[in-house]
Amino acid sequence: MATSMKGRQERLKKMLLEKNREFEAHLKQELGKRMKEGTTFFASTIRDEGDLGYFGFEQEISRRQMISCTEKLKRIAAALERLQDSTYGVCEECGGQIGEKRLLAMPFTAYCLECQQALEDEELSEKIRAWTEEGDQPREV
Ligand SMILES: [Zn+2]
To answer: Which 3-state string (H, E, C) describes 89-135?
Structure first.
């Protein structure tokens, strides 16, 4: 059991590092474009959307991509830290292991598939309750 856990951690780490490289390359590419256009700033200066507010409308897409890349890189760094604490890939709801396939597709998901679906169902029924006002009535347990 311990060995298979280790294998999983290794595979997840590899996946996260690959994604890290991917987003870093993408960010560099976008930054390279900016540099050519004579705008100088660095990834470390991108803190929020306000920092990039001086870009023109035509640069909006590229700007959004950079923000998104920066966000993803932060989340990957956080995920790698959690991986070290063995808390990455653990469902926040039930504490169970999130499937590797699911993590490959959604590296930042906090819930396993079952809990995600249960939460979505709950959210939906909450909304339905709110719409129908029946939620205000005390429920028999
Ligand atoms: Zn779960």
So the answer is: CECCCCCCECCHHHHHHCCCCCCCHHHHHHHHHHHHHHHHHHHHCHH
Whether residue 96 contacts residue 109, with contact meaning beta carbons closer than 8 Å, is answered with: no
Cβ atoms 16, 75 nearer than 8 A: no
Question: What separation in Å is there between the alpha carbon of 139 and the centre of ligand 1?
Answer: 26
Pull the structure tokens for residue 75. 């989340």
Q: Which residue has the higher pLDDT, 12 or 137?
A: 12
The Å distance, Cα 14 to ligand 1 centre, comes to: 23
The pTM for the full model equals: 0.68
Give me the pLDDT at residue 44, please.
47
How far is 87 from 44, CA to CA, in rounded Å? 27
Q: Sorting pLDDT into bands at 50, 70 and 90, what band is 60?
A: confident
* Domains of the chain from N-terminus onward: 2-136 (1.20.120.910)
Ligand 1 centre and the CA of 99: distance in Å? Answer: 10
